[in-house]
């Protein structure tokens, strides 16, 4: 059984998905995220969201998340390689 992560989890979710297969809007992460779940919708399905031109939208959403994670880790004395 996985342990609960105490922080916030970020999920990038395709907006074209089979709701019968994955009815949970948090895709199962809700019970594992002690700090909550931030969900970003990306155009396309599971595969096409990482292909042009949709991957550009994913990158635009991902960049501020990575910047914030780096900023937070620097503030906490951690370092990215």
SSE map:
Layout (H helix, E strand, L loop, with lengths): L8 E6 L22 E6 L11 H22 L6
Parallel strand pairs: 1-2
How many β-strands, per DSSP? Answer: 2
User: Number of helical runs?
Assistant: 1
Order of helices and strands: EEH
Would you tell me the structural class of the helices and strands? alpha+beta
Radius of gyration: 15 Å
The global form is flat
The separation of the N and C termini measures 30 Å
The percentage of residues in β strands lies in 5-15%
**Share in helix:** 25-40%
Low-confidence stretches: none
Chain-averaged pLDDT: 90
User: What characterizes the major β-sheet?
Assistant: 2 strands, parallel
Main sheet: which strands, in order across? 1-2
Structure description:
The protein has one domain. Helices cover 27% and strands 15% of the residues. The protein has one helix spanning 54-75, and strands at 9-14, 37-42. Strands 1-2 form a two-stranded parallel sheet. It is flat, with a radius of gyration of 15 Å.
